[in-house]
């Protein structure tokens, strides 16, 4: 099967690697640096499995930045370009997805387009109408940052937003590359599949918000958060997972997906969806207040990334904390190796000598703890109870 993957971030690249084990895959991206790295078998994203597969596996994968080369002759085109949330419009910015659709229609009369980018509910039907084409399918992804290929190799489920032979073929392509073959497969309407993605991520955000509010209560009352969580999670209906407190949910998906779902509700009555979004704001307010209670002169921010072993800090929760601390007038410094070429970030000085950073900081704020700061643990403020993501 000839497959093109448009957009080679963590969703696109993990799918490209997965599928290129058994198919001829072309990865398309406008970023020439990413294209060059993939052709040199180097991963442009932080994902140890992607790096290992690119370096050591026999993959039929090449990368290009010319749309005609990418889309001509493709049987399936997976669209995995970024769809950031536009707060002014209360809507995902889907321009990159629409651009790929236009290019595929220009260079191919037959390719089936499978949208993997997260989109508003009803988007696929809108695009079918707008471009007068029935070659569009939506299939949500459920991948964790830093473990995207692992999650493709061991999928929790495969959902394809169409009930057709071509949808079945696409599902089989995903199963073909997976190590876990016994995976649930669900075929739905395109709009239902879009709703599944947004509701699933909002549920996860709700769970994060719940345990964060539990932690806020325990911290104020002088209680042991871990004991409360352990007792609650012994209930099989709740389960001992996704329960580690943090500074709030953040990253690629949860902030934008929760806001988009809330926007999609429109006039539909709701309380929980709005509360989830509001709870994330409240948590950051609480964290900033707790830090300022210690009256530090210099606050050190240890890492901007959302998760351990990640290079992504887009929409990271600690940035919301930084904004609140900035407005209080406290002096801020940041340790973040990803910013090795930057002198400042969000108005704060970047110090990438870790020893110097530790020395200058009166308090070190860490969304996720690391052994790197174990030696100054008395300075560290974190709510990372279980030392894991």
Automatic annotation (TrEMBL):
UDP-glucose/GDP-mannose dehydrogenase C-terminal domain: residues covered: 300-388
Entry keyword set: NAD, Oxidoreductase
Highest taxon listed in the record's lineage: Bacteria
Binding positions (substrate): 142-145, 197, 242-246, 250, 306-307
Pfam family membership, one: UDPG_MGDP_dh_N
UniProt-annotated catalytic positions: 253 (nucleophile)
Catalytic activity: UDP-alpha-D-glucose + 2 NAD(+) + H2O = UDP-alpha-D-glucuronate + 2 NADH + 3 H(+)
Tagged with keyword Transmembrane helix: no
Residues the entry annotates as binding NAD(+): 29, 34, 83, 118, 145, 256, 314
Metabolic or biological pathway: Nucleotide-sugar biosynthesis; UDP-alpha-D-glucuronate biosynthesis; UDP-alpha-D-glucuronate from UDP-alpha-D-glucose: step 1/1
GO molecular function: NAD binding; UDP-glucose 6-dehydrogenase activity
GO BP: polysaccharide biosynthetic process; UDP-glucuronate biosynthetic process
EC number: 1.1.1.22
Homology family: Belongs to the UDP-glucose/GDP-mannose dehydrogenase family.
NCBIfam families assigned: NDP-sugDHase (TIGR03026)
UniProt name for this protein: UDP-glucose 6-dehydrogenase
Source species: Monoglobus pectinilyticus
